[in-house]
Amino acid sequence: MICAPVFGYLGDRYNRKLLMAFGVFLWSLTTFVGSYMNDYYLFLFFRSLVGVGEASYSTIAPTIISDMFVKDLRSKMLALFYFAIPVGSGLGYIIGSGTARILGTWHWGLRVTPLLGMLAVLMILVFMEEPERGQCEGFSHLTTTSWSEDIMLLTRNQSFMLSTAGFTCVAFVTGSLAWWGPNIMWQGLKMQKGYENVEPNSVALNFGIIAMAAGLIGVPLGSYLSQRLKVRYPKADPLICAGGLLISAPLLFLGLALADKCYYPVLVLIFIGQIALNLNWSIVADILLYVVSPNRRSTAEAFQILISHSFGDAGSPYLIGVISEMLKNFFKKSNIPLLLASVTSLSNNSLQIADVKDNKNNFQSLQYALFISIIVEVLGAIFFFFAAHHIVKDKELAETETPADNEQDTVQNRYPADETRLRGHSNPHFVA
């Protein structure tokens, strides 16, 4: 999160291919080395370095895709790129728990990823060719502005800021569900008759499969809807994002509310709710790329990562946990007579009642805390509705923006916008 702005600055000015290869290499190496650390602080240090590597890749990779493809094809490629997030998260539950179970230690769950990471580094270095910034959109030889000017222009870009705020809400919900979803499902399931001895790993496995399947369906579905609707409705992208959140909110609410009463219907509700939530991933990325000028897209990606992680998935699991503990203490204080009875009486019946009540308190405290995610989803939808009001204007500004050039007149001052892009595309010596 902290290093994303650094790589955003570098990604707008230096070789992105080498920066990405370095990031994935660092990511893989520190994951592998960290798995051998027995000291907590050393383990924490290497796990933190994993984030440094991830910051470089996730900040720069979308901007390279934007310079290789345009319009609908770019939306498709972004969908292909971004469904890796929910799919990878789902595979994390499955492969991580499976590897740990087979080899008898959780350490090997961290040693699978580095092998694939090193393969990715080789593929980046050998097969990847870095495109010129803005080349597919007809821009050529773009000049960079200062980092402070980039930030100032981004903060004035209302579509970018509002879509970033909406995406932060998506990250908040995704983070809280990824952390607490399997737990709330397990606690609710073991309160149901016949599932008292259910294992947490089996519930986590099912939750991971649901998350992965929802990503496989939701991310490309969002891209498909965007491509079909954007032709007639220029404001379609933020409206799809808002609609996805408004559909997801009641479904996830019902899934959480019924988690202690039924199992398979709850899985269906959470599955459909996550599909609606995943509509946002590729669309938000596409919004960023077409409302921001090519010469500051890496900085924009970094800014969005910084904000969405800071106020989204980095803090939501902790916040939900704190609120859950507060509610748990409140519930316990309101049931003092029952707790005293369980302590003073040695009867199995009394102890069993107290144990059931304690399980219910634990479940309900976490359940009510997770309801906050539903409120955040509605708030995110509001941000996207406001973004729809500015999206057309900001897209036009990004398409016609010309970097400052004090030495000569720019082509934009001499040709209409459409003609400029055509000339810039056909002649690399033109400055768009």
Automatic annotation (TrEMBL):
Pfam family name, one: MFS_1
Main subcellular location: membrane
Keyword Transport appears in the UniProt entry: yes
Sequence ranges assigned to domain Major facilitator superfamily (MFS) profile in this UniProt record: 1-392
Bilayer topology term: Multi-pass membrane protein
CDD domains: MFS_spinster_like (cd17328)
InterPro entries named in the record: MFS (IPR011701), MFS_dom (IPR020846), MFS_spinster-like (IPR044770), MFS_trans_sf (IPR036259)
Name listed for the protein in its UniProt record: Major facilitator superfamily (MFS) profile domain-containing protein
Protein's organism: Cinara cedri
